[in-house]
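Worked Example 4.2. Consider the chain below.
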Amino acid sequence: MPGARKQFGTADDIEAAWYDAIGRADLEALMALWADDEEIVCIHPDGTRLIGYAAIRSSWEDIFTRGGVHIRPVQLHASQNMMSAVHNLIESVSTAEGKQRDIHIIATNVYAKTPLGWRIVVHHASVAPGKAEIDRVSTTVLH
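Applying the procedure from the previous section yields the following structure tokens:
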């Protein structure tokens, strides 16, 4: 697991760092965002469930060999207390060339407040059927 890491003061801060690291295909930055816990979970849109740091790292390493994934998180619905936060959102996915893809992903990111600041403990992403409802009145755009 990573050594010295940046502290994040809010779940929103770490979520912004999460999508930034994915967009840059920065494996070290992405993995530094995870909690120091072997019970961390990542579920990719294809349904693959990974448990533990090594399995999650290996999967993202494989994804990043194909380049970054440009994701614009929209329609955030957040629930938070003093020690945890759950963010459910839609991920609008673009290709490396910046072209919008005709898919959207529903994601849930779970964060825990640790002695190192906020860290991700669960990322669950699923491809949603149909077109994204991007123009809803309650839309919240991160970034």
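The chain is about 20% helix and 40% strand. The radius of gyration is 15 Å. Compare this with Example 4.1 before moving on.
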